[in-house]
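Narrative of accomplishments. A recurring question from our advisory board has been how the design workflow behaves on a single, concrete structure rather than in aggregate. To address it, we present the structure tokens for one chain from the evaluation set, followed by the sequence designed for it. No filtering or post-editing was applied between the two.
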């Protein structure tokens, strides 16, 4: 049993999702605006958050920023619109997934199961498996931190996971579909542009610091690899 926070000002949506959450054996925690969402988050420490983008008082992006400042709990953004910039903004801030209204409650719960499963797998991994050092690059999944030399690079949760997946397999080429499956799960309904957007932002951040011994290389028409020179 786990607490699932649902933050949405539409009571029809929260009522329906509450029913499905209970069917999964979890307890729903409801918030009707952004301020209340953070209050409920601090009170219940939920295992997953379903977060509407357009909410009164504070929007979902601001709530997500506050959550990511203190927690790596899985967050699924819910938006009434499907524009790429909204999806990319949420993922860039640190969302694990997104879903567009109108949606199927069964699909929402499938995504909840997927993100919670990936989180449990990460938490159950041994501590020795959660730190990777290659030349001047250090990635620590326990702390969700990445350093180049002594300089910490401020990355989102998903950017660190992307870097970890690539660097854990040096010189191996990952297709875009490989990365979608590894980082978002087989039941994620995104497309290759999600991967391209993440890689582009990740490169911009890490390339701000010199790292001559390694790089992320584009294999045109295929995907990406972490290349060690």
């Amino acid at each position: 049993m786990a607490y699932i926070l649902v933050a949405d000002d539409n009571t029809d949506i929260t009522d329906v999702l509450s029913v499905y959450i209970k069917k999964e054996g979890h307890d729903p925690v409801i918030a009707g605006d952004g301020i209340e969402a953070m209050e409920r988050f601090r009170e219940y420490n939920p295992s997953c958050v379903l977060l509407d983008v357009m909410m009164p008082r504070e929007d979902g992006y601001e709530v997500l920023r506050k959550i990511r400042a203190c927690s790596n709990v899985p967050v699924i953004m819910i938006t009434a619109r499907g524009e790429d910039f909204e999806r990319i903004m949420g993922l860039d801030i640190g969302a694990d997934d997104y879903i567009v209204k109108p949606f199927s409650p069964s699909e929402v719960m499938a995504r909840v199961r997927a993100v919670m499963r990936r989180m449990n797998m990460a938490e159950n991994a041994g501590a020795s498996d959660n730190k990777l050092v290659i030349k001047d690059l250090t990635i620590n999944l326990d702390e969700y931190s990445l350093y180049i030399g002594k300089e910490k690079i401020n990355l989102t949760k998903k950017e660190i996971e992307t870097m970890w997946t690539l660097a854990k397999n040096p010189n191996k080429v990952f297709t875009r579909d490989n990365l979608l499956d590894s980082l978002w799960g087989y039941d994620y309904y995104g497309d290759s542009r999600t991967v391209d957007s993440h890689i582009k932002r990740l490169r911009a951040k890490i390339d701000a610091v010199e790292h001559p011994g390694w790089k992320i290389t584009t294999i045109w028409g295929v995907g990406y690899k972490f290349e060690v020179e």
